[in-house]
Design a protein that fits this description.
Elements (H helix, E strand, L loop, with lengths): L1 H11 L3 H9 L8 H4 L21 E5 L2 E4 H19 L5 H4 L3 E2 L2 E2 H25 L6 H19 L3 H8 L3 H24 L4 H15 L1 E10 L6 H19 L4 H8 L11 E5 L5 H9 L5 E6 L2 E10 L2 H20 L1 H7 L5 E2 L1 H10 L3
Antiparallel strand pairs: 1-2, 1-9, 3-4, 5-6, 5-8, 7-8
Helix pairs in contact: 1-6, 4-6, 4-16, 6-9, 6-15, 7-9, 10-14, 14-15
């Protein structure tokens, strides 16, 4: 759970981008509206009622850690909207929320996971402020200006329409984003300070090399499938062998790919692919990972004959930064266990009436 919450925190606290995405997702008039006028037009749905503003209040506290209503409202609605987008096309959402997973309904998981996340954010926020961190005036102004731009350009300064879209007023959203950005900056700084040794990196690489390694090859595909006649298959093989001879004689495989390859995904890119294991058909992948850099050859797959040239094979240095980041995220909850102990504390207060009001309003 701790790793999951940290991932959510890192990926979602800089929410200005999400603000833009939310606005874009609002219903727009179809470009084909004129063309569709001749077709039968279904009855228009009743417009949703305007949202009622939920005042900025304290939802949950522990000592000097405070979760505000706007923190919960934003993330609860964001997660709920994402779940509807992901599952709504093929599931009945009216029954989806009542499905049970590990003894809790989906609705209960959503409610509790969001609460855990915003409590974690609240602890990090108060920790950051205690350590003297604060947003620059430039950052604060940037958040305010971005929200005002959205309000003016996409809602024509109509704050009720803004509230309908985000369930928050511009002022509430601004405050929530300021807190979120400070938390993000603090966590990023804290992660960078987590020490990872060269020995730890090497050990991780050795244990996960299959999933980390990648290769770069260039190839030319000559179609040869079971649907082709024997004569066509023989001609394809002869053509492939002739092109391989040219490559082995020093011809540029990239130029030959543009001229002869039938692979649309690479022929205009010098025939080049960079990939890890499990991404290509077995014969292609096996040759690519087994061959030495600079080696040339030919492989037969269900697609046909591939004239191959291996360009590069990754090593530890290529993925060291990726490994370091992974290990930092794994070690972070251990080094900041005092934070997570507070997040998991049973002593948090909770304004249940306010929480129920937020959840009830989310259906609008």
């Amino acid at each position: 759970m701790k790793k999951k919450l940290l991932t959510i925190l890192l990926t979602l606290t800089l929410a200005i981008t999400a603000v833009g995405c939310k606005v874009v997702d609002l219903p727009e008039q179809s470009q084909d509206a004129d063309a569709s006028q001749e077709e039968s037009i279904p009855d228009e749905e009743e417009p949703l009622p305007d949202r009622e503003e939920i005042p900025e209040e304290t939802l949950s506290t522990l000592a000097d850690h405070v979760v505000y209503s706007s923190d919960y409202i934003y993330y609860y609605n964001l997660y709920r909207s994402n779940m509807i987008s992901q599952y709504g096309a093929y599931m009945d959402m009216t029954t989806f929320w009542d499905q049970e997973i590990d003894g809790q309904t989906v609705q209960q998981h959503l409610t509790n996971d969001t609460l855990n996340m915003v409590r974690e954010s609240a602890v990090f926020y108060s920790t950051a402020t205690k350590e003297g961190m604060k947003l620059s005036q430039e950052d604060r102004d940037g958040i305010h200006d971005e929200i005002q731009n959205v309000l003016e350009t996409q809602f024509d300064n109509n704050e009720q329409e803004f509230l309908n879209a985000f369930a928050l007023t511009p002022a509430q959203l601004s405050g929530m984003l300021e807190r979120s950005k400070l938390v993000s900056e603090y966590v990023s700084k804290a992660l960078e300070a987590v020490e990872v040794s060269e020995e730890e990196i090497a050990k991780f690489y050795q244990g996960n090399q299959d999933s980390l390694d990648f290769v770069t090859v260039r190839h030319i595909l000559i179609d040869c499938t079971d649907e082709m006649t024997e004569e066509e298959q023989a001609a394809a093989k002869t053509k492939a062998e002739g092109i391989l001879a040219q490559v082995q004689g020093g011809a540029d495989i990239g130029k030959l790919a543009a001229e002869h390859s039938t692979d649309p995904g690479s022929k205009d890119n010098n025939g080049e692919y960079t990939f890890g294991k499990g991404k290509m058909v077995p014969e292609f992948e096996e040759w690519a990972f087994a061959a030495k850099t600079g080696e040339q050859g030919m492989v037969k797959t269900s697609y046909g004959y591939h004239i191959m040239e291996k360009m590069d094979h990754s090593d530890l240095e290529d993925v060291k930064d990726q490994i370091k980041e992974t290990l930092r995220q794994e070690k972070f909850p251990q080094q900041y266990s005092h934070v997570y102990d507070q997040v998991d504390s049973p002593d948090w207060s909770l304004n249940q009436e306010l929480l129920d009001k937020i959840i009830a309003a989310a259906v609008l």
